[in-house]
Amino acid sequence: MKYVIISGPTAVGKTDLILELGQKLNFQVISVDSRQIYKYMNIGTAKPTIEEQAIVKHHMVDIIEPDQYYNAFQYRLDALKIKNKLIYENIYPIFVGGTGLYIDAIVKGMFEGVARDENLRKELSELEKKEPGILRTMLEKYDPESALRIHPSDIKRTIRALEVYLKTGKRISQLQKQNSLSNDYKIVVLNRNRDELHERINKRVDEMINKGLIEEVKYLLDKYPEDLNAFQTIGYKELILHFKGKYDLKTAIHLIKRNTRRFARRQIIWLRRYKDAKWLNLSEISRREAIKILEKIIIMSREGE
Per-residue b/e over 91-115, b at no fewer than 16 CB within 10 Å? Predict the structure, then answer.
């Protein structure tokens, strides 16, 4: 038996196809999304709704509070535990989502070989406070591959990558590659032509605003401090800056769209690293054909063919 991972950039249409497939095949979804793990962050993370989750059960969604710490290593432990439980119950699990680091955690395991150095971390943190942006510049110089997958505002992961490089002289991206891909997984990447994907992203952001994203962010800020790592998520961070008076609303919405398009590009670059992945361009095939192809892949993987 192989396990299917269905990935692709944000707004490509993963959830929509999964819901239709789920009505035909007996499977449950294990989410591979590093933002949908947070409770209350529903609209901005495009989390499947209660109605959608009633059609196909989703795991690894709404598992922690926004102020709780979580990482890819813990994700691997939790996701594989759920996978094994579902298999025991004779339910086929499908991994669905676009977080590349979480996919790596599943198919490659996690590199945990360099111990934390609290003094070095403190020095790097203080350096960033004195010269904002300096850590990003260092990361782009010393480990450009990690710079591609780590968001510029993700200081924690930036510090970790620099910590590994400064302590070992080796890039964390190189060390992580030493773990080979497991043959237990079949990766399918959904994509669309650039213009169509951008149009879908822009439309999705408008829909998020109409559904109440602004109110959702206000609600979260009433419950939690604004400097949480969870609030570095696209859509939340721009609106927080809008509330602080840095942008007007029109500018904030423009930045959400722009930053989401850039994020989608980084996702696609990351996913190209999986050389044996099956790519489906949803701009070039019909919905019916896409469903047929995915259904065949899932059945064959489940039956071990």
Answer: ebbbbbbbbbbbbbbbbbebbeebe
Q: What's the token pair of residue 205?
A: 């952001």
Separation CA 280–CA 203 (nearest Å) = 22
Q: How far is CA 164 from CA 58, 196, 204, 210, 273, in A?
A: 35, 39, 37, 43, 22
* Beta strands 27-31 and 3-7, pairing class: unpaired
As a whole-number percent, the residues of the chain with pLDDT over 90 amount to 77
Q: What is the pLDDT of residue 182?
A: 77
**Count of Cβ atoms closer than 10 Å to residue 175 Cβ:** 15
Q: Which of 33, 29, 47 is nearest to 103 (CA)?
A: 33
Sorted by sequence, the CB contacts under 8 Å of residue 215 that are 6+ apart come out as: none
Q: Which amino acid is at 247?
A: Y
Q: Mapping DSSP to helix (H, G, I), strand (E, B) and coil, where does residue 55 land?
A: helix
pLDDT, one tens digit per residue, over 222-246 is 999 999 999 999 999 999 999 999 9
Scanning 56-142, the segments in alpha helix (DSSP H) are 72-88, 100-107, 118-130, 134-142
The token duo for 234 is 């696209």
| Spans of all domains in the chain | 3-110+179-302, 118-177
Does residue 177 have a pLDDT over 70?
no
Going by C-alpha positions, the residue among 24, 29, 75 that lies closest to residue 56 is 29
**Total-model pTM:** 0.81
Q: Which amino acid is at 269?
A: I
Predicted local confidence at residue 38, as pLDDT: 98
The DSSP output letter for 205 is: H
3-state secondary structure of 187: strand
CATH code at 3-110+179-302: 3.40.50.300
Measured at the CA of 140, the angle between CA 31 and CA 246, to 5 degrees, comes to 75
Q: What is the CATH number of domain 118-177?
A: 1.10.20.140
